[in-house]
Amino acid sequence: MPKPDSTLLDPARYPFITNVDVRFGDIDVNKHVNNVSLAGFIEEGRVRFHRESGFHGAVKGLGAMVASIATEFVGQAYYPGSLTIHAGALALGRTSYQLDLLIEQDGRAVVFARSVMVTMIDGKPCPLPDAFRESAKAWMVRP
């Protein structure tokens, strides 16, 4: 994925927000938060979004997996401090949906990530549950 469109780096577009603390163990020898730790924060943001948006409850009895993830490191994050994670659904498909996530520190964009989540049953894609389709309307990235 090329550098994201600047409109995707606007936190006001995202309906979900959460904060996480940077740990000392997240930094590299240059005293920046390392990319592996940032990938972990992407995962944490995705999980928190799924809990808050009702996705976890809607897929009860089904599986869900990340089919694709594209990550753009657009800035540096530092210790000590916290990260603000913004997230929202961008598009709903038949068996999958796209989730965009922006991580900031002190108002500066650090990471943009786009994930494609697929619902599964018996190892095969299955339709997104109607309950999630309905609740997702409130969790879409704003135009």
Can you give a write-up of this model?
The chain is α+β, with helices and mostly antiparallel strands. Strands 1, 2, 3, 4, 5 and 6 form a 6-stranded antiparallel sheet that branches. The mean pLDDT is 94. It has one domain (16-139): Roll (Thiol Ester Dehydrase, Chain A). The chain has 3 helices and 6 strands, in the order βααβββββα.
CATH superfamily: Hotdog Thioesterase
Residues in helices, as a percent range:
10-25%
Strand-residue fraction? 35-45%
Main β-sheet description: 6 strands, antiparallel
Count of DSSP H/I helices: 3
Rg over CA atoms: 15 Å
Number of strands: 6
Average pLDDT reading = 94
Q: What is the 3D shape? A: globular
How far apart are the first and last residues' alpha carbons, in Å? Answer: 20 Å
* Count of domain modules: 1
**Top-tier CATH class:** Alpha Beta
CATH topology: Thiol Ester Dehydrase, Chain A
Question: What is the architecture at the second tier of CATH?
Answer: Roll
Segments where pLDDT lies below 50 for 5+ residues? none
The helix/strand class is alpha+beta
What is the string of SSEs from the N terminus onward?
EHHEEEEEH
How would you sum up this structure in a few lines?
The protein has helices at 35-53, 55-58, 130-136, and strands spanning 16-21, 63-73, 82-92, 96-105, 108-121, 124-125.
